[in-house]
Prior knowledge:
heterotrimer; A: 325 residues; mainly alpha; 76% helix; C: 303 residues
Amino acid sequence: MLLAVVWAAGTLNFFIPRLAPKNPIAEKLTQMAGTSGVDPTKIQEMSDAFNAKFGLDRPLWQQYLSYLGDMAQLDFGYSITKYPVQVADLIAAALPWTLGLMISTTLIAFVLGTLLGAAAGWKRNSRTLQILSPLIMVFSAIPFYLLGLVLIYFLAAKAGWFPISGGHGIVSIPEWSWEFAREILHHAVLPSLSIILASIGIWAIGMRGMIVNVQGEDYMTFAEAKGLKPWRLFLRYSMRNALLPQATALALYLGHIVNGAVLVEIVFSYPGLGSLLLDSIKLFDFPTIYGIVFILTLTVAISMLAIDLIYPLLDPRVRVKGLNG
Amino acid sequence: MVNRRTVLSCAAVAAAIIFTSMNAWSQTTVPRNRTLIVAANVEAPVYRNVGLANPYSINNEDYRVSIINMFEPLFYYNSNKDEVIPWLATGFNYSADFRAVTVKMRNGPTWSDGKPFTVDDVIFTLEMLIANGNGKKDLLNSAGLAAAVKAVTKVDAQTVRIDLNQPDPRFAFKYLINYYDVGLHWLPAHIWKDAGDFAAFRNFDVAKGWPVTTGPWIVTRFTDNQVFMDRRTEWWAAKAGIAPMPEIQRVITIPGGTRDRMAQMIASNQVDIVNDIQIAEVVRNLLTQNPKITTFTGTNAPYGAKDWWPTSLYFNHKSGKWADVNVRRAINHYLDRKQLIDIAYAGASEATFSPFPGFGSLKPSIDSVKPLAVRHGIGVFDRARGDQLMTVAGYKKNAGGIWEKDGQPLAAVIDAIPILNAIGPIVAQQLKNSGIDASFRSTPESRAIMRDGKYDLTLFGHRGSISDPYATLEMYHSRNAFEVGRPTLFPARWSNADYDKIVDEIGKLAPDNPKIGGLVVAAMDIWMREAVEAPISEWYHRVPMNQTYWTGWPTVQNPYMQPSFWYTSGSFGYVLPRLKPAN
Amino acid sequence: MADAAPVMLASTEAMQGKMPWLIAALRYVHRNPSLGIGIVLLLALALFSGLGRLLVDVSTAVPLSAPPGAAPGPGLLFGSDPQGRNLLSVMILGTWLTIRTGLIAGAIGIVFGSALGLISGYIGGRTDSVITWMIDVLLTVPAILFLVMIAAVVQTGLSSTGMALVVAALAWRKPARAVRSQMLVLRSTGYVEMAKLSGGGPLRIVFLEIVPNLMSFLVSSFVAAVSAAILACVGLEAMGLGPQNEPTLGMTIFWMMEFSAFLQNMWWWILPPVTILIILFVGLYLVNAGLEELSNPRLRQRA
């Protein structure tokens, strides 16, 4: 099933950029118009030369077949519009930023949001939670980048406490030192904050819903009747049951991170996969698009597979069901 | 927050491993006041082509603002004073029939690996490009050079003769003299002869000291957001007394990113020069905020240096929509250039009435065509006259206030590349206010539409002439009027046989021939009469330069070079040794 | 305020005779504040936009209508942008355009997605597996790839309706899946069997029996779909790929970033579109949360 999904998605993703009858080389040369040594009247000639080089002049079905073969071997080839850099290098350079920013902020938001949602679902009469949780959940309605714009305006442009953009200081040479790590952290605060603030709510809502559902189950009433301490009830019964769907949601979300990351990366000049994807799409750089999307598809598919494998380990009911047919 | 620090530290380690693996040398630290920091490259937030130093690769965005300036040309050119500055060569001259150019090399230049720069290197570079232009065509400048050059011959140890396929009194200006985006870069034959596929050759290896150039710099670091160029211990030009040894010990070039980012970096003295800020108000704010910042024109408008890219509204002469010259003239009258400049550039620019950029060397040509422009009304805002012309063309205003003919309201779409976003909507609105249903569009599709000749109207610049009017005039020759579908960046696609004849004549004469003046007037008379396009304004590069650490920048008081450093000519390399520390 | 209570009680009792449903609705809203606040916010925006079009001349939302870059002042309530657009008109027009785009995309997405989900869930078997598989595959297509590609390719430039259609093309995926799950749950309940026994055809059963039961779920899905659609549209516009000649909120954000509003301290250009969008998203979210409470009594906070 996994393979079928990956293949189908791969095929779809091959053809979508081709819907536009565009030539990446001609696009690139035009984009460079005005500030590079491209002869304005020789665009056709240069396009033809590179078409041959990249096999863009072959019939579409031939290109499709070699695309399939390349993807299977994870050979993404050369980027057309950034020749002669290899797509794998482009992705490898962008990946740490996306991983570093998006994954860390998602994990933090997940942990904080889940805790908040659980508390909100459990103690529904607490005043603080009644005020705090709607506020946090309301933040979740705001797209990351809008929040980012506001934060940049107030904390970076006006107050100057944080840098407006970039990953580390200008003249610093990346090295393994606390000093450099501190710099990275300093630069990561605003982007992280906007993502965390805006996404805590998502996890909180989900968790609250789960906890509430679980609370209504019979076994909870039974456990309470048995006289278990509330703490124990909360952790071993509520949380554990509610956490499973929540974890599923997290796995699925991780596959779609890049979607939401694009505008954040644009707003903060963060050189991650999101802005690489957007640049490639705008210039119809097929190999790079295919490479990135393939990695994303693979991530989603693998995370779904992982959930399918891990779920039975965590939830005995699923195991038993499987055994009994 | 242990989670976050651990994860981010891991990311830092991963990043560090990737970065440091590209550079085996240890970095010495250079004090800030001996470092020049340049923030350029607005195309992407990082360098995507790390470790590429091949000057003929089409993807030169990353090294164009840094490493290219290590390559020295045969001749520099200062557009401010219209002066050719001999550098690796001492002079050139044409044969009487302009079918050959002889260039004499200077005795003394050496490569950074110690070997002498000789005429063999020049011949190697030219032959490599010509072979490519006749074959694979995947190197910059190769196609044009191959079409122009018949043979390259070594006359003696200091001299080379280039034989041309057609007589061309401007060959040197097209290929041997470096300015803006024009000019070649000379390669060390002893390294490049083993390069293999020239288009794929990276020409980069820190350990080996590649790229090897004649300039006083050597690349010691090239990562996805830093390029370090360190000063060498010796330089032939300093030895020969032509230029001072640079005081700058290290040039660090980083990606510029967005305009906001560059402005804040230079305002806080973190960098010394950034890319073109374009928006006049922003530059003005920078100047008031930080008195150490200056521009080419100091603290006065237009806050920058003129570019060879004056803006015009182009008509698509192949689509038939603008076939009536009265309509073209009317549109020209409907554009209020002063209002446009006031709004888009805060008044910091000038209106144009011809396709020539207002460089000093072109002033005689511009002055000579001014009466023509006045006579034909080109560049003149006069709504009443425009209305008259539309009526003559058979249009009547309909109920919605739009000009209509045969039941068809006149609508047009202005396609342009996003850099024209400041002017585009205003031009569209001005036309709308005058009765033409115009709208502006700058989507990614727009550049293809403009390039392939499928546009209604477009806004674009010119390039072309800097020192003599021929190059601009030649852009309107009918051989450049490509059919719709064939890409070109000369959008006009206009043809006129009489105009062609005159321009061909000019092409045969040397740039300093006095007969040219009269021919220019004759050609431009046709151009103006036919209202080929509607000129709008000059284009300025508003580049802020920070004097906290470095002074001696080129300005109107000291215009020794144009300060735009992102062009492929490498002319910024001429500026670097002339910058002096501020303290 | 103690003596106000009997007065209020008396007047509600008086009204009760006239509009019982209104009283019930107001009472419910008092118990379910999210829904209440959400509706208030959305109504406020609708009023701003609707009344605005009547009171203000929105033809001034184009360049050259006002002195460029002017701060808010007499006659220019929200100031103007550097190209001379009257920002009050832009906000009024933009709010309406943005909401309309979201409604179109959300409606198409929900109608098509629910229909597909219901049918697929009802029929079951191989058809269902194939359809689910197709939806899963489509779900892996990064939305940004599809949206940007289409937006970049449409030769005639995207209008806001065009963009709504493009977003709708992806908006039906999630509702299809969600509705199908609901359908699966319901299918196994008793009354569907009853309806089958009573001789109804499949279409009758699906649309006349099941849909009314799913009403609150569908409405809440619709609100979520509209919110997601607006998010996608604004995102596209903020990247510069939207309808450039229509003063939507997303395009305003794009122009604002393009022309360095931050550096020029044009707060009157930055805050209004961001605030309106925040109010819009928050309003939609609260309405959605309120509807969820409506359909899931366990979530109710107050007795």
